[in-house]
Amino acid sequence: MNAQSEQPQAAPVALITGAARRVGRAIALRLAKAGFAIAIHYNTSANDAEQTRQDCVACGVDADTIRADLADRPATAALVDAVLTRFGRLDALINNASIFERSTANDLSLSEWDRTLQVNLTAPLQLALGARPALNRTGGCIVNLCDVATARPWPDHLAYIVSKGGLETLTAVLARALAPDVRVVGVAPGVAVWPDAYPADQRAQLVKRIPLQRAGTAEDIAEAVHYLLSASYVTGTVIPVDGGRHRA
Question: Which one from 160, 198, 227, 233 is the annotated catalytic residue?
């Protein structure tokens, strides 16, 4: 065996947006356990991002935090370069960060609309195009976090629902545009992590409508993301992870 063949292969690198808390953190930890080096993007949750970094490092992988405001297009454009400078490669882009704010046809402001669509839809496009050369080199994958609620749109979260519907379409379009070197897929959670102030009676009503009779977890979503990263013949599809609710 020659000296070159004895060199360990570089670990794959995953950039996860909004990885400090909730579903993003669960994805970071799941991929760290699978041997990925983790680029933990955050905006305002610096302490949580640092805790996620420490927990990823405890899994035996390299990890670092990188701040960027995805509502700012120049900051978003610089994010992939920051990851490549720190880690030297990129194998997976997980577009998880999003704005989830109440907005209706009666009270929506265009500034709120613009901000939501920038973070939830335009930023994933910016990052995908910026990451394309690096992902081409590694045969990488993009996973977009969509939402099964687009099939039954919520009129009280108008901007959010429209942005997630757009992200689902973007997933299908980019899968064709970036093929054959880069796969683009999506995960559409149902009930995964309850909002902190969500009333208990409403939680119970929602769970009754789920065929599996339970709410999902952030870890359920993370498992689906991990599966898609290894599913080399899957592209252009969005997998619902909602306990069967989309069929009920």
Answer: 160
